[in-house]
Amino acid sequence: MSVYPGFRDDLLAAVPSLRAFAVSLSKSADRADDLVQESLVKAWDKQNSYQPGTNLKAWLFTILRNEFYSQMRKRKREVEDADGAITGRLSVHPAQEGSVDLKDFRRALEQLPEDQREAIILIGASGFSYEEAAEICDCAVGTIKSRVSRARTRLQEILEISGEGDFGPDAISTQITNTAFIA
Amino acid sequence: MTRRGKDEDPLGANSEIGRKLRQYYDDLVTEDIPDRFSDLLNQLEQKSGAETAGNKD
């Protein structure tokens, strides 16, 4: 049973926004789709914790965000374990290309730390209020405000200095010691 | 409900960053959605439908 009739349809209607947020967070279209899938399953399983009439989109974004960070922690461990074998996959750009202009913008956005990137996306693009974004990110309204402001400043700086070089994904140098523990 | 009040909107229509941000995001939102999501939701619904029916008595 659904928590209310039409719950399934409402989840489906939220998928485009969830995907956009997931791509913004994970920087990878493939990972984003996995994130959305995982989030929908979680949302379905815990649908009784959703209060009908409250903001479903915010509820779903919270689930997706938690899923993202828990996957990221897991991946970090995997990367460390796997001697950097997975690092290549971490930096796949989404298929989205768009205009050259927008490509530069996307790359600039990808350079922001996660907390700033999510804040500026939630406020500037997803249409959430500062209060809603604070709830989604489980932090104070003032924290969101300062993250948005730092993100904006940083984007401006990057976009002004960009143009000459092709800065791809950050080279995550996880040079894990190859030191074999040979006794 | 966006209540920006007297807060000046740093990402508003007059901001280039704000415009690009929305353009970037809107491109993503309007992408075609893979069928796997509606398939998944159908499965979840069927599964819980079956569970409910099974728990009837």
Automatic annotation (TrEMBL), chain A:
Which Pfam families does this chain map to? Sigma70_r2, Sigma70_r4_2
> Which organism does this sequence originate in?
Nitratireductor aquimarinus
- Keywords of this entry: DNA-binding, Sigma factor, Transcription, Transcription regulation
Q: Can you give the residue ranges of the RNA polymerase sigma-70 region domain?
A: 16-77
Q: Which family does it belong to?
A: Belongs to the sigma-70 factor family. ECF subfamily.
Q: Which residues form the RNA polymerase sigma factor 70 region 4 type domain?
A: 104-155
Under the heading NCBIfam families, the entry gives: PRK12547.1, sigma70-ECF
InterPro entries (UniProt xref):
RNA_pol_sigma-70-like, RNA_pol_sigma-70_dom, RNA_pol_sigma70_ECF_CS, RNA_pol_sigma70_r2, RNA_pol_sigma70_r4_t2, RNA_pol_sigma_r2, RNA_pol_sigma_r3/r4-like, WH-like_DNA-bd_sf
The record's listing under PROSITE patterns reads: SIGMA70_ECF
* Annotated protein name in UniProt: RNA polymerase sigma factor
- Read off the PANTHER family from this record: RNA POLYMERASE ECF-TYPE SIGMA FACTO, RNA POLYMERASE SIGMA FACTOR RFAY-RELATED
